[in-house]
């Protein structure tokens, strides 16, 4: 299996020092990413009592997808007297994006699967953004064709060549192919299956999923155990599912619960007039496209580079204390209510008496945008949108310029390289990641890609590195159905609301969007 | 000493004939019609030699120095002549003029050589010995040149290297004479330095010949390559045979001058017959100006907007005299506006509406071009049309690739276009297909075709719209950005055909 989280490989072994350093001398690089330093200022609470006070109806803390979705919903509910406080110099969270001379590129999340047709709030937002253009006579959504992922979508490097699609085919035995087919058939069945409460066993948002114990108990075993119980044996299938879990959750099948592992497949029931559930909506800047739409609603009301360090309920009011990194002053906002669109490890530090339950585990990630002359030709299927390496340390790379319509080949190409840092436990991985210099990342990334593109170091020009220390919530065994998640669903205070994908247990756009809407609606109801 | 001078006669004679052969071959490559080209080149060359011979009377002093100077000059001009002609072919407005000027100059210089040499030798030989020896070596050299030129030089060295090589020989003669007669020659050192500089230049061209024109490519094409250029977007190659001139883009045949009228008449006249209005016409692709040529036959056409990605293409077909002859200077017409832009991008920004649109893109052989055949593209195109506009799409071969052909039809239909698919026979392509389409039901609005068409008639068109069973409609999917099914059909069908 690929590198398994929790194993005891040390950092120095991980970066095998194999070749001369000057091989990478021409590659420029830098590290960006969530401001760990600023975040730790909050953790260590080094601030003085605020001198200035302002009043608003509401405050949203955190400008990730949940916070932005909440702001949009407040706008739709007619509540415009609010502020959104964001730690970074831009909003967007995991769906942030960047760009250079050659292309826009995602810094994190890069696609949205075709949404389920009953997820009306999401469909409405997509329609509002012009991504969903209408409904056909059967009531199926019609998506803007230019926003769907263009063909060829995916390829896999296996047995020294690229094959079309991500499910291993090349050089697999008949037994393996039968097992893969059996798996996909099983998922197809589970996609339609409902629990005794009449709800889908696996749904998005997760909150809508059935509570039928027959399915919920799958959360108590890990994905590997599930596969073993079902009699699966083929190495390719185990790899594929490990890849899927790492892709969506930042950890492999030994960590991720069977319920979450299955959810990845069975929750996707999306349909459209011009696409099916296997397809994606994507843009060169990844989900930055969705963020750009959401940002419009709160652009004027966002205070960037602010560290909220204390949230104090005061009867019918809430006091929010923050440090303005631009003005170097501490400020206070008194609001009727507030939304904490922050992950639990932040939320619990902000509210009085909060205790962070360590059942909330976050997977660290590395995302690198690599500018290169041209992705080298290699044997087999041609360059696709998503390019995955069988049994690779990384998840491979996404080629954002695939979504360009013009014939003009970009002067240089940009690919986004995804590496879940699951070779150590999250805390150690985080420490390891923070200690690495940009050049060390360059070496690590380049050496990984050399396996599929020998000589690629020669054509790489620049590597833009984003380290996500707490990249995504990790649905490890027992987490989805566990007490910690259940307890975190609402705050102990009537005028404080939580919104974050970690409340769902899976870090996907749809869940963040759901929680943002839910919190904003609850706040608006409370205020009216 | 005499032997040395006579050997130089031999070399000079070989070189002289080689330059003549190179010029003749190059002219028939580039301009076609080899009988005319060879005959006129030989005529001009011999006549210029006469001028050279006449001029020799004005050289009275320092004959050896003049001879050395002359050798250097012949070597340089003859040596770079073919490289120069290949380079100028693209840019020169009147290529013929440049060609004959160069041939005339070389001829004059070569014509000077022998009289000058005979003047040098006249005191060392009896007159009859002199004439006999000089002309013997001259004709032996000519025989050698005429044999090695077709057998060794053209196939192995190519034209550019051949002329370079003989230019080097000419200059080498200058150096040898310079060294051997250093006491008799004025400014020997200066002449030697000049000669060496010329040799260096010629050797450089010899080794860069591939850059100037890739000969390896000549192997991939049936006929001699007369022009090749890698633009930002594609490799443009022109080949010339006895019968025709062919344009290849990235190795794919775009037209043969022998039968392109069939292709372009069938492309342009049906939509013109079916469109009620025809004053504003859009051409997408078609940088060769051939479709525009057909459109300009209609006085009603007020403006043609031609959008082609590659400025190298439109420039070539606007400036090269032979190509301008093929498209009747259509790209120079005041009624045409040539825009070098990406069609998708251009359509996104375009606000204008057109009565007719001619869509003449390369075949959908890869995913990039495939995007120009998708519903997304046709929907964008629809915004540039009125309800009664008529468009036509070149749609590959319905015989070789019926699924690909009918996929274009299905794609247009999915975008709510009414269609009339049709096909015609173009000998150099084979059976070729088009899909005419309009947002409204299609009907013929005009009977009158412009005068001077060589192929297309209304009666022919009725046959074109009829499909035999081997090309009949197939059950296919429409081409979307997220399935790119057309590229798959195309690859499958053409792949099988080429096996």
UniProtKB/TrEMBL annotation, chain A:
Gene3D superfamilies: FAD/NAD(P)-binding domain (3.50.50.60). InterPro entries: FAD/NAD-bd_sf (IPR036188), Zeta_carotene_desat/Oxidored (IPR050464). It comes from the Bacteria. Pfam families: NAD_binding_8. GO terms for molecular function: oxidoreductase activity. SUPFAM superfamilies: FAD/NAD(P)-binding domain (SSF51905). PANTHER family: AMINO OXIDASE (PTHR42923:SF39), PROTOPORPHYRINOGEN OXIDASE (PTHR42923). This is Putative NAD(P)-binding protein. It comes from Chitinophaga dinghuensis.
Automatic annotation (TrEMBL), chain B:
Belongs to the spermidine/spermine synthase family. Catalyzes the irreversible transfer of a propylamine group from the amino donor S-adenosylmethioninamine (decarboxy-AdoMet) to putrescine (1,4-diaminobutane) to yield spermidine. Pfam families: Spermine_synth. It comes from Chitinophaga dinghuensis. It is an enzyme of class 2 (transferase). GO terms for cellular component: plasma membrane. Its main location: membrane. The chain crosses the membrane at residues 37-55, 67-89, 95-118, 130-153, 159-179, 191-209. InterPro entries: PABS, PABS_CS, SAM-dependent_MTases_sf, Spermi_synthase. It is a multi-pass membrane protein. Keywords: Cell membrane, Membrane, Polyamine biosynthesis, Spermidine biosynthesis, Transferase, Transmembrane, Transmembrane helix. Its EC number is 2.5.1.16. The active site is at residue 360. It is found in: Cell membrane. Residues 206-439 form the PABS domain. HAMAP family: Spermidine_synth. S-methyl-5'-thioadenosine binds at residues 234, 308, 342-343. GO terms for molecular function: spermidine synthase activity; thermospermine synthase activity. Spermidine binds at residues 264, 288. The keyword Cell membrane applies. This is Polyamine aminopropyltransferase. Homodimer or homotetramer. Pathway: Amine and polyamine biosynthesis; spermidine biosynthesis; spermidine from putrescine: step 1/1. The keyword Transmembrane applies. It catalyses: S-adenosyl 3-(methylsulfanyl)propylamine + putrescine = S-methyl-5'-thioadenosine + spermidine + H(+). One of its GO terms (biological process) is spermidine biosynthetic process.
């Amino acid at each position: 299996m690929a590198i398994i989280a929790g194993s005891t490989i040390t950092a120095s072994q991980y970066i095998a020092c194999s070749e001369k350093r000057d091989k990478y001398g021409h590659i420029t690089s830098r590290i960006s990413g969530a401001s760990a330093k600023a975040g730790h200022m909050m953790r260590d609470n080094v601030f003085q009592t605020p001198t200035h006070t302002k009043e608003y109806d509401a405050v949203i803390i955190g400008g990730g997808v949940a916070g932005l979705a909440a702001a949009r919903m407040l706008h739709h509910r007619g509540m415009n007297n609010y502020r959104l406080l964001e730690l970074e110099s831009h909003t967007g969270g995991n769906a942030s994006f960047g760009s250079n001379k050659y292309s826009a590129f995602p810094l994190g999340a890069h696609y949205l699967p075709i949404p389920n047709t009953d997820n009306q709030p999401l469909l409405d937002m997509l329609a509002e953004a012009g991504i969903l253009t209408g409904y056909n006579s059967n009531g199926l959504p019609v998506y803007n064709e230019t926003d769907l992922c263009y063909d060829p979508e995916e390829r896999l490097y296996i047995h020294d060549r690229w094959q079309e699609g991500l499910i291993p085919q090349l050089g697999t035995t008949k037994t393996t192919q039968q097992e893969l087919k059996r798996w996909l058939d099983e998922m197809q069945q589970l996609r339609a299956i409902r629990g005794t409460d009449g709800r889908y066993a696996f749904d998005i948002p997760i909150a809508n999923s059935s509570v039928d114990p027959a399915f919920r108990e799958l959360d108590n075993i890990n994905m590997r155990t599930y596969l073993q119980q079902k009699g699966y044996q083929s190495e390719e299938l185990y790899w594929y599912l490990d890849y899927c879990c790492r892709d969506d959750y930042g950890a492999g099948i030994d960590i991720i619960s069977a319920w979450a592992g299955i959810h990845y497949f069975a929750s996707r029931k999306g349909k459209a007039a011009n696409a099916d559930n296997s397809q994606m909506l994507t843009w060169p800047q990844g989900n930055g496209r969705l963020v750009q739409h959401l940002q419009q609603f709160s652009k004027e009301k966002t205070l960037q580079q602010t560290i909220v360090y204390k949230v104090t309920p005061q009867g019918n009011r809430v006091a929010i204390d923050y440090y303005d990194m631009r003005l170097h002053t501490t400020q206070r906002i008194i609001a009727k209510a507030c939304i904490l669109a922050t992950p639990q490890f932040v939320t619990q530090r902000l509210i009085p008496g909060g205790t962070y339950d360590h059942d909330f585990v976050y997977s660290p990630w590395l995302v690198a945008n690599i500018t290169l002359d041209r992705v080298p030709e290699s044997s087999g299927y041609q360059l696709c949108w998503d390019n995955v390496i069988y049994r690779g340390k990384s998840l491979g790379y996404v080629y954002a310029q695939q979504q360009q319509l013009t014939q003009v080949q970009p002067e240089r190409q940009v690919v986004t390289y995804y590496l879940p840092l699951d070779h150590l436990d999250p805390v150690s991985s985080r420490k390891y990641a923070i200690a690495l210099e940009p050049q060390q990342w360059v070496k690590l990334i380049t050496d990984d890609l050399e396996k599929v593109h020998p000589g690629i170091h020669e054509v790489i020009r620049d590597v833009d590195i984003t380290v996500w220390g707490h990249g995504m919530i990790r649905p490890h065994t027992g987490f989805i159905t566990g007490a910690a998640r259940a307890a975190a669903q609402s705050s102990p205070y009537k005028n404080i609301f939580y919104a974050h994908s970690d409340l769902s247990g899976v870090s996907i756009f749809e869940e963040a969007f759901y929680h943002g809407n839910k919190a904003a609606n609850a706040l608006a109801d409370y205020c009216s | 000493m005499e032997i040395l001078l006579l050997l130089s006669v031999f070399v000079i004679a070989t070189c002289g004939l080689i330059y003549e052969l190179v010029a003749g071959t190059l002219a028939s490559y580039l301009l076609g019609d080899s009988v005319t080209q060879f005959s006129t080149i030989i005529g001009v060359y011999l006549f210029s030699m006469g001028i050279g011979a006449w001029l020799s009377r004005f050289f009275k002093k320092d004959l050896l120095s003049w001879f050395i100077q002359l050798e250097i000059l012949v070597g340089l001009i003859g040596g770079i002549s073919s490289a120069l002609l290949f380079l100028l072919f693209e840019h020169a407005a009147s290529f013929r003029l440049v060609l004959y000027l160069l041939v005339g100059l070389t001829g004059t210089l070569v014509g000077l050589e022998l009289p000058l040499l005979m003047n040098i030798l006249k005191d060392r030989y009896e007159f009859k010995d002199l004439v006999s020896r000089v002309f013997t070596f001259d004709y032996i050299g000519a025989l050698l040149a005429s044999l090695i030129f077709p057998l060794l030089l053209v196939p192995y060295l190519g034209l550019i290297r051949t002329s370079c090589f003989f230019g080097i020989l000419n200059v080498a003669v200058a150096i040898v004479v310079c060294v051997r007669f250093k006491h008799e020659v004025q400014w020997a050192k200066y002449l030697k330095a000049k000669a060496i500089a010329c040799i260096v230049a010629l050797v450089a061209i010899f080794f860069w010949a591939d850059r100037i024109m890739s000969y390896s490519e000549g192997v991939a094409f049936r006929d001699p390559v007369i022009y090749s250029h890698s633009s930002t977007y594609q490799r443009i190659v022109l080949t010339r045979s006895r019968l025709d001139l062919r344009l290849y883009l990235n190795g794919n045949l775009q037209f043969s001058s022998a039968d392109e009228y069939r292709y372009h008449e069938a492309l342009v006249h049906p939509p013109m017959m079916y469109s009620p209005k025809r004053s504003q016409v859009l051409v997408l692709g078609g940088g060769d100006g051939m479709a525009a040529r057909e459109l300009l036959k209609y006085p009603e056409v007020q403006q043609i907007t031609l959008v082609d990605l590659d400025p190298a293409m439109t420039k070539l077909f606007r400036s090269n005299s032979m190509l301008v002859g093929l498209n009747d200077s259509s790209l120079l017409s005041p009624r045409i506006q040539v825009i070098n832009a990406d069609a998708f991008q251009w359509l996104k920004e375009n606000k204008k509406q057109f009565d007719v649109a001619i869509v003449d893109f390369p075949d959908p052989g890869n995913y990039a071009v495939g995007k120009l055949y998708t519903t997304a593209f046709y929907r964008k195109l629809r915004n540039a049309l009125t309800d009664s506009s008529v468009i036509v799409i070149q749609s590959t071969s319905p015989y070789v690739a019926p699924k690909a052909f009918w996929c274009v039809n299905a794609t247009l239909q999915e975008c709510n276009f009414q269609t009339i698919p049709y096909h015609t026979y173009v000998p150099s392509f084979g059976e070729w297909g088009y899909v005419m389409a309009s947002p409204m039901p299609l009907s013929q609005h005009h009977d009158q075709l412009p005068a001077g068409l060589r192929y297309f008639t209304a009666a022919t068109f009725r046959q074109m719209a009829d499909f035999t069973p081997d090309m009949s409609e197939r059950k296919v999917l429409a081409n979307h950005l997220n399935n790119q099914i057309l590229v798959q059909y195309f690859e499958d069908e053409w792949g099988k055909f080429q096996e």
